């Protein structure tokens, strides 16, 4: 598993409020965000889970 910080809000596992997951082959990537991050909002729209 690879943990990434969002380049926009720059939070990680200790201070992030939300995460998005991506899987490709045998790799899992976790990206941490603030709930107000536009990248998190865009990920939710792409996943069909927008509020």
Structure description:
- The chain is of the alpha+beta class.
- The protein has one domain (2-46).
- Helix content is 18%, strand content 35%.
- The chain has 1 helix and 3 strands; from the N terminus they run βββα.
- The protein has one helix at residues 38-46, and strands spanning 2-5, 18-24, 27-33.
- A 3-stranded mixed sheet has the order 1-3-2, with helices on one face.
- β2 and β3 (27-33) form a beta hairpin.
- The protein is flat, with a radius of gyration of 11 Å.
- The model has no long low-confidence stretch (mean pLDDT 87).
Largest sheet: 3 strands, mixed
Question: How does the helix and strand content classify structurally?
Answer: alpha+beta
Overall pLDDT level: 87
Helix segment tally: 1
Rg computed from alpha carbons, rounded to a whole number of angstroms: 11 Å
- Binned, the helix content reads 10-25%
Order of helices and strands: EEEH
In spatial order, strands of the major sheet run 1-3-2
In total, how many domains does the architecture comprise? 1
Taken as a percent bin, the fraction of beta residues is 35-45%
Give the CA-based shape: flat
Distance between the termini: 28 Å
